[in-house]
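If you are new to this repository, start here. Below is one unmodified record pulled from the training split, so you can see the exact layout before writing a loader.
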Amino acid sequence: MQQSKSATRKIQKVASTVSVENDIELTRLLLSLAMDIARVRAKSDLMNLVKERFSSFFSFSHCTISVPSGRPQHYKAFMLDTSSLIKEHTQYHELVTADWPIGVEWMVAAIDKGEPFICHLAKMKAAGELTDNMQIVYDAGVAETLNCGLIFENEVIGVLSFFSKTPDNFQLAIFPVVKAISSHISLAVANIMARDEIEQKIREREALLSISDAIGRLKDRTGLLELINTQLKKLFRFTYSLVVKLSDDEQSCAAFLLDPDSTSRSHPDYETISSRRYPVNDGMISHILAANAPLVIDIEKEATAVNAPDYMIMQFNAGLRECVGVTLRDNNQRPMGIILFYADGKGWFNANVQNLIHAVSFHLATAMVNISHHEYIQAREAENEMLLSISHSIASISDKSKLVPTIKKILQTRLNFSDIAIVQYNVAKGLYKVILEDCEKANQHQDFEGIAFREYSLQDGLHNRVMASDSAVLLSVAALQKVGGIHFDFLAEAGINEIAGVRLMHNNEVFGGMTLLAENINSFSADDMRLIERFSYHLSGLVANMLANEAIQQREKEKEILLSFSADIARTRGAEALIAVMRQRLKSIFHFNDITVGIFNAEKTAFKVLVADVEERRTSHPEFKEIAFAEYPIADGIHDMLLHSDKPELFYIENLLMKNPGRHPGIQFIFERGIKEIAGVKLVNQNEDIGFITMLSEERNSFRHRDLHLLKGISDQVAVAVANILADEKIGQQLKEINGYKEKLEEEKLYLQQEISSVYTHTDIIGAGPEMQRVFHMLSQVSFAQSTVLILGETGTGKELIARAIHNGSPRKNKLMVKVNCAALPANLIESELFGHERGSFTGAIERRIGKFELANHGTLFLDEIGEMPLDLQVKLLRAIQEREIERIGGKSTIKTDVRIIAATNRNLQKEVAEGRFRSDLYYRLNVFPIVLPPLRDRKEDISLLAAHFIERFARSTGRKNIKLSSTAMKQLTAYNWPGNVRELEHVLERSILLTQGNIIREIHLSSQPKSEAKVRQEEDFSRTLDEMERDYILGVLNKCKGKIFGPGGAAEILGLHVSTLNHRIRKLGIQKEHTYFLKKP
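And here is the target side for that same chain:
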């Protein structure tokens, strides 16, 4: 404090002397200072002189001289005091190396006028007037500063500043001295700046000459980097540099020379960003290319802008704030690159620096041209070595699976790609397919196998360009997606964004192409594309030869497989044998779980499985057969595709169900039981689509497209086998039908032979009486109709003759009339007799047999003794008559029939219905047109006619002629009651002829019986029903046989009935054991 007061007194004394007492003394003092300043040659000398002279007038901690930085109202350090108390501050280096603004207008005005002024930092802080640099000074402990602008030739060339830790240290009284002395210091500063400028120009000139000399010796990027970091850093300040090179089309750029001192190297994405290619229209690059001089870029502004490039954000995060860039041009002024210098702060690159950079850029451009040319030569040599290495490496490869991995390993030492594929073109069909690949990126996609190995159109936007171009082609996947194609969508999903492709030629014909797939855009440079093109020349011949050899081997292998398969197929008989052979053979080629062979219907609107070999996981399901072998509409997304495709197809079940959930029960069934993928092909025989083969797998991507083409050759043989199987089945069905017809014909033949022996004609019905005339009239009414006829009458009245007369007079006369005697057949065989049976339907059914309904189809069925039919069979008979269809015993289907029914009985059906022994519904169904035949005793006027007819017929058959009846014999005939009716008359006359010795029958040999018994029987005929008489008759026979029914001497033998028929009659008539008297005898 005392020192400050002493200095103030000195200044006051000097000032007093100047103004009042002694102007000469002040002049002498200034002249002495001027002389000292004139001897100053260095900044340090001037700083020492300033500190020495001013310290005698007032106290201060240190002082500085700043000069304009080049930016308006911005200054930078020119001379620094080594004793500065700010040196210990953490931001001291940033303060003295950066330029800083004069942020207050009154300070700017004072500097411009060369007037001293004091900055009270605490007050300015309170007023918000402290700039960043002044804040650092204040934080370092400075309380106030005394400043004065340095004016030289009416221009501010600097600012002289004194710093004090003590508030109010500087007084206004010293302002005149400061101003007076500052003018002399201005001169010294101007001189030093002039000398520095001259020296700087000398250094720059020397540096440029040195650079020019060094550039002539440069051959690589390392030398250029060393030159930049040693020589250029002597000329101007920068943190690090970067050289980028433009692509040949000037649309993109990439790093050409990276500075290892880059502060961005610590950024996690540095390697990725620095190796990436960038479009030139990203903002900064395009602006630099458009400028004719170096361009300063504000990194903070660019990095915080919308859509800022990632490299700009990385540089900003690394602490960089400014850069300057200039275009490097070749001798033809064509831009080939850019050099960039980066700074941690702002204001480093003033006009002088920019001019220097502009001058240096010409030399750097020359260096870049030389290095690029040298690298081009080296690259060509390296390419040649690489191509020779590849040729040598692949020349000995015989296994094609090793070809692409070998190529990929070598190419990846020079090129940036992840996947490689070689495709084969089918120019005739306009298709291509992948034949070799090594895709570490794309094959991670779940649909790789299903998509990568399909056939695709050559006109897909990629391979049509590759095929037409003499050089390698570079395309983005995004652009190809716009053209269309699921394979490009697949590549995009797999992370592939760029494709380089080149064609493969052999004998001047394009046969394929090679594609390299990269994750990043701009992965391939022009040099890379040239290398790819050159490599294709070496690869083409090798791949062509390999494909040719492989084609030969494949043809031989396929021929062997097909011949073997053909031999096995030829030995198969039936669908089951076929599917067994197919599974055995195809399992060696394909991976599948189930295999099916199916057929289309004639209209190709539906399909069904003919035969299948399916694993237990699915066959164990209770509904498997119902679902698997049902008929389905063809439009299910699989079989319609197979029908319309000429090649094998591959299907993913999950994808089908996602498109049409719940639409296909069969597909849903197999999916729920593990099937994920289906490969199939249609079967074509003689240009007709007859069916399909499908192989089903529980694993996705089980089928390789490269193998599926073999399925086409196999399908041709299977188609023939399936056609033969279908033909065999058809022939078998036809043979079955023929056998049916044969059986029917044999049945008809047998039946006709039986009928011939007892053939009747309409003339066999003899009757002139009114009763018979009524019957004849009814015959004429019903014969031509289709109505059911019920013939009623006693035994022997000629019911069968009437039935045959109806048939012969009907439109069905050219077909059979089949007779069934319902009383003559056992109850358990009547159903089989009527409806037929299948082989094995019951014990003893050793072969199939057609029933009488089928035999009488389109003809007439005569059911004689219909009243004897069991009740349970009456139901089935009624259904057959009403529905006009039958079902064989043991059969699974109904058979349509067209039969006219004629029934006959000697029973009173109305009484049978009333007593529950005959169904009323069947009775009404039969009783459509009843005809009642009169007994012979009611038409005795016809006995003579009948007798004459029978005598003539029997005489003819016995070889006797002119046999006559005597009047006595005729009286016997007319007197007899004829309980057996016409049949009894016929038999009596036959017996009488045989017993007659001459030509005249004089006595009729009637049945011998006592007259009393005859009388009783005659009376019984009128007092009891037929059932009652039959019951008594059977009882009599049973008593005679002592209850024995079957065997020699049994009732069945005596009655001439089958045992089962007799048992049926016994049960029906209610005969019990207690009714037989022989049981009561002791």
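Two things worth knowing about this chain: DSSP finds 41 helices and 35 strands in the chain. The two ends are 175 Å apart (CA to CA).
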